[in-house]
Design goal:
Blueprint: H1 2-17, H2 19-55, E1 58-63, H3 69-80, E2 85-91, H4 93-103, H5 108-112, E3 122-128, H6 134-142, H7 145-150, E4 161-163, H8 165-207, H9 209-217, H10 222-262, H11 272-301
Antiparallel strand pairs: 1-3, 1-4, 2-3
Helix pairs in contact: 1-2, 1-10, 2-8, 2-10, 2-11, 8-11, 10-11
Length: 304
């Protein structure tokens, strides 16, 4: 405990001696962790949106009006036995028309234009346990011989099977690009932060070179000599993390409600638990950066 008090005291002495460099390290850690935190929160929102879209991914297979009940039941039984299929239901022509009328309650003119006719086909509706496998299930259905005879487009059965995989793939492409760009920026920021910490420790070592030489002569251990420099890096990392988390909290309190209200149809809200996880992650990253940066600097400039 006595050594810890000495380390903390000497860390603040070093910080005052090299105030501008120390503040530069803190600001760099703060900005780096803030950007990492923003990307983490964006990633949470993007994943929530992707999961929301995935939940709506299903397969609708349209059936010809003259399809026999036996063939429809055989196709449903075949689909129910496929892997990744969670449930299967059948929508008759009358049910399809009723669903269409319900969806057009605000614009009944379109319904009236049907003039009592029902142009909508029956359909087999498939819900999946793994939406990522929608194309696999759709291709298996298209290849099923009985379905080829009852689909509403026997010349091209693939036109009778509709699913939203294209929009999901586009969404995943965008999210992957964001993740790669974010990862690149994070790595760049970490390298810049390590450079600043390395420079800070180097200046502190040079300023105390005479004192360090005396400590070596009187038999001070390597850990005792290195202690203040490690403590200084940890303090810088903690201060930078607190500033970053504080800014993220302000964003969460003042900006997120506006964003949630602006795009209320998308699940972009950050829960307190998710914010806590991000904050703890930033603290861990900050401490790792601080410790690694100080260890790197001392190995290079402190020959003990």
């Amino acid at each position: 405990m006595r050594n810890l008090g000495y380390f903390i005291k000497e860390a603040f002495v070093n910080f005052r001696r090299n105030l501008s460099t120390g503040m530069g390290a803190i600001i760099t850690i703060f900005l780096s962790l803030l950007i990492i935190g923003v990307f983490a929160m964006m990633n949470i929102m993007i994943n929530a949106i992707a999961e929301s879209v995935e939940e709506k991914v299903n397969i609708t297979a349209y059936i010809a009006d003259d399809a026999s009940d036996a063939d429809v039941k055989a196709t449903i039984g075949y689909v129910e036995g496929l892997e990744y299929v969670e449930s299967v239901s059948f929508t008759t022509k009358d049910q399809a028309l009723e669903n269409f009328k319900n969806s057009m309650e605000s614009n009944m003119d379109i319904v009236e234009q049907l003039d009592g006719e029902n142009p909508l086909p029956a359909s087999i509706d498939i819900n999946l346990s793994d939406p990522q496998q929608v194309e696999t299930v759709a291709n298996q259905l298209i290849a099923y011989d009985t379905f080829k005879t009852i689909c509403d487009n026997p010349d091209d059965p693939s036109e009778s099977v509709k699913y939203g995989q294209e929009s999901v793939e586009r969404l995943f492409s965008v999210t992957n690009i964001i993740r790669y760009v974010g990862l690149g920026m994070v790595l760049l920021l970490i390298l810049v932060t390590l450079f600043f910490i390395n420079n800070t420790i180097r200046l502190a070592i040079l300023a105390r070179q005479r004192e360090i030489s005396i400590m070596r002569l009187v038999g001070a251990t390597k850990g005792f000599i290195r202690g203040p420099f490690v403590t200084e890096s940890i303090i810088q990392a903690i201060i930078g993390t607190i500033l970053a988390v504080g800014c993220l909290a302000l964003i969460d309190v003042f900006l997120m409600p506006f964003l949630v209200g602006f795009i209320s149809w998308l699940p972009v809200e950050i829960t307190w638990f998710q914010f806590l996880i991000v904050s703890l992650g930033l603290l861990v990253i900050g401490l790792i950066i601080g410790l690694f940066g100080s260890a790197l600097a001392m190995r290079k400039h402190l020959k003990v």
